[in-house]
Design brief:
About 40% of the residues lie in helices and about 25% in strands. It is α+β, with helices and mostly antiparallel strands.
Length: about 375
């Protein structure tokens, strides 16, 4: 899903579809022709330096129809873009393709049925067909927030809360890292000093790709679900969501020596930020991005520099405040967000910060 223009959002509805058994191979062949057409188109465009869309269209339109039996289109792997009416139609529980093939709709999110279909993409991956249909929906108005829900992200946990409540969500870095290591182990086993044999063995190459894709999917799935939880909690309490600007941190992680853990953490930060922002737009939840410097090292009560008194536990030598590092960060993020909103927060007391009930939220509503 992605943001649209002023006053509207572009959403993608994922439909699980299946061709009739006797047509499955024909649909796969259609997708292969699209893939071959793309490869051919790239070669023609490079050879003729067709850098404008109009020139590429003149060069390719007739050729694609005659050579591949296809209109001009873009592809990626076993997938193809489809134009509404010209390429596909959704009729009830069936999808009709322009080439006379039919697909049964197995299931999809029906919340956007009232909005017209736009372009779509048919994808075949890991033995399943999926149709991604884009739609334009009105952008919801943002409500006036009654407070702030702060989000602090670290390697092991995402901490969500404010001066009254707190919830901690584990990150899947270790689980994803396991698949990265499996891929690395296979590559090492089938490699020599000057020859990477695994690249020439299709079975091993597919297995390595599978492990890398699995690690990436674990991070992506976690980021989407965590963002949904955060925005659901905020909407439930009519709160604004405040998160740190992690752009600088992600860039600095990318500049470090290539290491799986570092790469996964950077990916997780980036994807979580993206999905939080998107869910906020989709649900009309106000979002604030604050400066991250000092959020976990300065006292949210008096601003003094904190000292470490235990594992991830800090104390203020000036006012005596003591709390977990992540709780400190939540309170500082909340204060900075409230300052941006032009509001204020009553001075927190130590019991509020040390005796937070992580289960006080209850179950978030389903959107």
């Amino acid at each position: 899903m992605s943001a649209g223009g002023e006053g509207a959002l572009t959403v993608t509805v994922r439909m699980k579809v299946s061709p009739e058994p006797e047509q499955e191979e024909a649909v796969l062949e259609l997708l292969r022709r699209y893939r071959d057409a793309l490869n051919y188109s790239v070669r023609v465009i490079i050879a003729n330096r067709a850098l404008s869309l109009s020139k590429a269209h003149r060069l390719l339109y007739k050729d694609l129809r005659e050579r591949y039996g296809l209109p001009s289109a873009t592809t990626n792997g076993l997938s193809m873009w489809l134009k509404k009416e010209q390429g596909y139609r959704v009729k009830g529980d069936r999808v009709e393709l322009a080439w006379g093939y039919g697909l049964r709709v197995i299931g999809y999110d029906r919340r956007y049925d009232d909005f017209p279909n736009r372009e779509a993409r048919l994808v075949f991956r890991e033995g399943e067909f999926t149709l991604y249909v884009t739609k334009r929906v009105p952008r919801p108005a943002k409500y006036a927030p009654k407070g702030v829900l702060a989000v602090d992200v670290n390697e092991g946990q995402v901490v969500v809360g404010n001066s009254r409540v707190e919830q901690r969500i584990e990150t899947p870095v270790e689980r994803a890292l396991r698949y990265r290591r499996l891929a690395e182990r296979l590559q090492g086993k089938y490699s020599f000093s000057r020859y990477r044999a695994w690249l020439r063995r299709s079975g091993i190459r597919r297995r390595v790709r599978h492990f890398h894709r699995k690690a990436k999917n674990i991070i992506e799935d976690w980021a989407r679900k965590t963002a949904h939880t955060i925005i659901s909690l905020a909407k439930q309490g009519q709160l604004a969501v405040a998160r740190e600007d992690l752009t600088g941190l992600v860039e600095s992680l990318r500049r470090l020596p290539k290491e799986h853990r570092t790469a996964l953490i950077a990916l997780g930060y980036r994807r979580l930020g993206f999905w939080i922002d998107w869910q906020a737009e989709k649900n009309g939840v106000p979002i604030l991005v604050v400066e991250p410097a000092g959020t976990s090292s300065t006292c949210p009560r008096c601003g003094a520099e904190l000292v470490e008194v235990g594992h991830r536990r800090l104390r203020c030598p000036s006012c005596g405040l003591e709390a977990d590092r992540d709780t400190i960060a939540i309170l500082n993020i909340e204060r900075r967000a409230l300052s941006k909103m032009g509001g204020s927060l009553a001075t927190p007391t130590a019991p509020q910060m040390t005796d937070v009930n992580p289960n006080r939220w209850g179950e978030p509503p389903h959107l």
